Amino acid sequence: xxxxxxxxxxxxxxxxxxxxxxxxxxxxxxxxxxxxxxxxxxxxxxxxxxxxxxxxxxxxxxxxxxxxxxxxxxxxxxxxxxxxxxxxxxxxxxxxxxxxxxxxxxxxxxxxxxxxxxxxxxxxxxxxxxxxxxxxxxxxxxxxxxxxxxxxxxxxxxxxx
Length: 161
Description:
single chain; alpha+beta; 5-stranded antiparallel beta sheet; 4 helices; 5 strands; flat
């Protein structure tokens, strides 16, 4: 037989081997995560319900869904075992202390000892501001259109296209 006829089958068998290996690895990690459950640990079920573990058995777990409300779930229905701070943030709305996170300034001026300089506005001034700067009064739109046409280099052409 020719090697070229066997090559697609070899590639297919290799791909199947790699896919089953990664799936087994994920199953092993999920089993380890479920074995870490202890009473008092916060969990999320595969249905998205958050609860606290009260009792762990061989293939089932007793969860406290709400204060005084208990339910028995299969261990396989636990989607994630959560850290205490994450569980408290999601379920109870308790944010972690702000003192632990570093304060990042919005600009570099707070990092230097010199006071911040006055910010310069580099934006384009409007025609009304130009006239106000020169001490002129805003007369009307005809002079503004003439000024715009003069600035564009087209004197006398004030019609809009």
